[in-house]
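Cross-check.
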Amino acid sequence: MSGFLAVDSGGSGLRVVVGAAGAEGRGPLGRRASREPVRT
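Predicted model, tokenized:
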């Protein structure tokens, strides 16, 4: 499975963006992860 993983640790917390090839419309996982920030 080809895709990309982007991790951005900014001042407001940790933001993780995960995208897979053809993830658009293939499930809420990819879009949900890129939309919601993950705070540690």
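The radius of gyration is 11 Å. The first strand starts at residue 3 and ends at 10. Passed to J.P. for a second look.
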